What we know:
With about 210 residues, the protein is an alpha+beta fold. It is about 20% helix and about 10% strand. The radius of gyration is 20 Å and the shape is globular. One of its GO terms (biological process) is meristem maintenance.
Amino acid sequence: MPAAIGGALQLVQIWAWSRIIPLCPGLGAPRVHMGLHQIDNNRVLPGAPYGAMWNCEHTFTRTVRTTVRVIRDILDEMQYDQFIWQPYDMESNVIMAYAGNFNPQLWRSICPLIFYAIVEMHHPERVLRQFGMMQNIPDQPDTRDMSLHKITRSNRTGTDWVLQHILYITRWQRRYDTVIQRQPISNRRDTDRGYWEWYNNITRHFVFVVY
Length: 211
């Protein structure tokens, strides 16, 4: 794995397995049941993490190869119905076991996500179809937030990160004020007029590979 890549790549990989159908490992293979864990008479927690859903017998004919060239070809040839538009797998025992601790409104809050020195902006308004809402043309991202990617903890011993990120902490405290609400998806349309023209002008249609 290149040293320049950081972040929770395992979470991204599991997200890709659960959303991008052609990338799901072991397509059609029987799953290995991991069992449940009984805490008390009222609560049953899953006995394995969410990623264990793909615990199955892997074969060359059913498992997507890890070659970059193959993965890029799969992404280039994807069809519309091969991506699952949903925020979370609410049929999962793992998620439902802890759902009582979550407020689903936070899934639609435009707010900063803060972990010690790391701050990333959460932009659900750019993927509204995952939340069952009509997708409009989103506003341009705030360029001031791009400076967050340049922050490093190198030679920053003693830095007061609360003071450093006080602006974003304040925005997080007001997270319920920035919950986005849009028109639900209708039977015929899931985007506003003009969205696809805008999208086709700004997106990368193919992942070009230099062999």
